[in-house]
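Sorry, explain these tokens?

***
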Amino acid sequence: MCEDGSDPGVGQALPRPAPGEAVDPVALEPVDEVEVTTLVDNVYDALLVDDERTRRADFTAGRAVAPQFEGRETAVGLVAEHGFAALVTVRRGRTTTSLLFDTGLSPDAVVTNADRLEVDLAAVQGVVLSHGHFDHAGGLAGLARRLGARRMPMVLHPRAWTRRRLAPPQHEPHELPTLSPRALDGEGFSLVERREPSLLVDGCVLITGEVDRTTEFERGMPPAHQAWTGSAWEHDPLVIDDQALVVHVRGRGLVVVTGCGHAGVVNIVRHAQRLTGVRTLHGLLGGLHLSGPAFEPVIGPTVSALTELDPSLVVPGHCTGWRAQHALAAALPAAWTQGSSGSSFRLVA
């Protein structure tokens, strides 16, 4: 950020046409298998059932002391909260690598759910932060306590540190919790800040960096979402630090994992297609940010665009909203799958 509060990089992400192939293509290595385990989501449903590509966590995931029951304990299932975190595990040949994509809202939910699912967070090779909003970064405190002195690499956009607030009409502004790079460094995270696409895990995982805004209908956050420029609060429609995680499953196509999808999920998918040269969308998982009056007009064109892309699996979560969930389920009945804390989705070459 410049001393006057302006950011010269913001203009690079303003909506603009982007015809043709990417001028800076990314050689994303295909993988044999990817498994995405939702560690934290807004919903937990213990009655969901497994299928050939989905494994669900039921009430047996976790026990707690409860004196009112015979045996003095009860089943507790998993934590659900307004946040998102996913464990992404990729396999190529005999090599398997896991990354944590976002960490949920509260300090303890992601660690609690990982323990109940018997996920070893110490085996995770790195953290990717989709953007700086607190409902995706709150679990970093619990993760740091679990890791102790170990240094954990974290990939994020340099604007993830932006001060932001919500200032809806007729209400007092509410400043959102802001990440501190100094605190994260002190807690053991090795910060890797990049605006550009990043290739991780020997070229098997793409982090998009800033996403091209090319659609006419995905216009970002409403005026109530504001950022501090260094001298004043201004409308922050872009959430320019928003980025997604992309894997290419051999012979199947791209699997895209979003945090909130603030860049617009269609923008994100098209950006991933342009960068990689892979046209097929195999799977889409994560928050699509289509909830509430400001975003519901975007549901129709989003569903139409995703229907044309014809993915095999769509697992909308977190901030997608029930109206968009219903529309997606109706338009893509074979692909749409209910998300839930503790669900694992396995896609194989």
Q: What stands out?
A: The radius of gyration is 20 Å. The CA atoms of residues 47 and 285 lie 20 Å apart.
